[in-house]
Amino acid sequence: MSNVLTDVSRRLPPFTRKLAQKVTREHLSETAEDYLSAKTRILILGAGFGGLTTALQLDRLLDPSQDVSVLVIDRNNYSFFHPLLWTVASGRTSPSSIVVPVRTFQRGRSFHVLHAEVTGIDLDRKVVETSAGPRPYDYLVLGLGSITAFPNLPGLKENALPFHAPSHAMELRNHLIDAVEKAHQCSDEADRKAWLTFVVGGGGDTGVELAATIYEYLADGLYRRYPWLNTSMLRIVLIGRSDRLMPMSTPTTSQKVRQVLEEEGIEVLTGVSVEGVTANAVQTSQGEIPAHTFFWAAGISAPPLITGLDVKQARNGALIVNDRMQIPGHEEVFVVGDIAWAYDAANKEGIPPTAQAAEHEGAYVGETIAGLLKGKKDAAPFMFKPRGHLALLGRRTGVAQVGPYVFTGMAAWFLWHAYYLSHIPSWRSRLQLLVNWTLAGIAGPETSQLRLE
Ligand SMILES: Cc1cc2nc3c(=O)[nH]c(=O)nc-3n(C[C@H](O)[C@H](O)[C@H](O)COP(=O)(O)OP(=O)(O)OC[C@H]3O[C@@H](n4cnc5c(N)ncnc54)[C@H](O)[C@@H]3O)c2cc1C
């Protein structure tokens, strides 16, 4: 029955097609010509937390009788759920369980998806260049996410490992296994120690969770396979330039996080900066640490496509937006997620570059554009109320900041897993994660290498 309806609706004019689509809940593919001929064209760049939430909100709020086409462009066919990357790195699940195909979200929805690379953005001509050809727009939503920022420190780019993408989690595992194997083969005591020393630069959320994940993978997983290696030789050092860890959270949370990490045996150095890296050591403002492994997790920046735009930017290249998430002087352009430099309209505090904030911004921008199309020009300014703060801190422990309460230990660990399990928008991923986490809990984490290059 639905196929008959689909065939019929394909032959209908654009706005009737959209209505038929809403009624049948079937998704109809749209050609470039359909997009170009729509009365209003909304282009969303990036199908991540911010971009996809904008598209879903527009689907909810746009009236099918309006001749509007919404097109989401992404270079990947999946949306990647960054917060769960830790459980891939710690060998408790596989990368495929933390990505969801973009087309899954599109089923029964009125937006369209173009699987292509965005190669240029011309704000004056209102055209976006893609590997599938140019796409003009009436409204543009920029949600292209961030990349790891590498400041100009001697040897940093050449010797530091980043942690941002699904492949990085696999590389981390491969690297830790290589390092332990090298230590096993090493007869020189000092060099053996350097192979078993893992240094993380960056005392923010990513650095903290990274140090805890390395600890968990080694102490709780890999070392079980090498009983002759002495766990006391393991050295994990976390270096943060700020005077406390996770400066975006409250001082109480920072203090509890430090306590948990130190109880695990992780050395925490705050108020210390990394000054250079070689293949054999990390130079810091407090001296040299002999180590063959250095992970860099101290900051993000906007990708070159964004930093190349001739509009006002913050130091890390994020675009400075007004209180309606628009680029001043280009009010048809909205920015969401990590590449937006935004403030809460009520308390004037900066909005953090998190998935939670990106989703709030996406929902707000979707609502604002839908309102503009209905003639509502006075959208309320953007305000952000964080739901809380969660971080995984290694072997069955974490930290949870919920309202005024901060707690650590098993309860925080459970809350972290329950929250993200309920949040990933795919039943398939949820089941996969549950099975994999349970299996890892019983039989230990995955310790075989998988090289995909
Ligand atoms: C390891 C890690 C753990 C994290 N944990 C948490 C957490 O626990 N809680 C939390 O709130 N936040 C967390 N974050 C931060 C969170 O992931 C980001 O803030 C969030 O992903 C930002 O959303 P976004 O929409 O801006 O970008 P993204 O979600 O990164 O989406 C950007 C999209 O743009 C696409 N894209 C980029 N360039 C192009 C191009 N040229 N052409 C086509 N497509 C392109 C990408 O493929 C991607 O799909 C974590 C981040 C990392 C790296």
N- to C-terminal separation?
Answer: 46 Å
Mean pLDDT: 92
By DSSP (H or I, 4+ residues per run), the number of helices equals 15
Number of domains: 2
Secondary-structure-based class equals alpha/beta
CATH topology of the largest domain: FAD/NAD(P)-binding domain
Shape: elongated
Which homologous superfamily in CATH is the superfamily of the largest domain?
A: FAD/NAD(P)-binding domain
- Round the Cα radius of gyration to an integer and report it: 24 Å
Q: In percent, how much strand structure appears in the residues? A: 15-25%
Find the count of extended strands (DSSP E, 2+ residues): 25
Largest sheet: 6 strands, mixed
Low-pLDDT regions: 1-9
Task: Name every ligand kind in the structure.
Answer: flavin-adenine dinucleotide
Strand order of the largest sheet: 5-2-1-9-21-20
CATH architecture of the largest domain: 3-Layer(bba) Sandwich
Helix content: 25-40%
Briefly, what CATH class of the largest domain? Answer: Alpha Beta
Which key features would you list for this structure?
binds flavin-adenine dinucleotide, FAD/NAD(P)-binding domain, single chain, 4-stranded parallel β-sheet, 6-stranded mixed β-sheet, 22% strand, 25 strands, alpha/beta
Describe what this molecule looks like in 3D.
The protein has 453 residues and is of the alpha/beta class. The chain folds into two domains: 219 residues, 3-Layer(bba) Sandwich (FAD/NAD(P)-binding domain); 199 residues, FAD/NAD(P)-binding domain. It is built from 15 helices and 25 strands. It has a six-stranded mixed β-sheet. Helix 8 packs antiparallel against helix 9. It is elongated. The structure holds flavin-adenine dinucleotide (FAD).
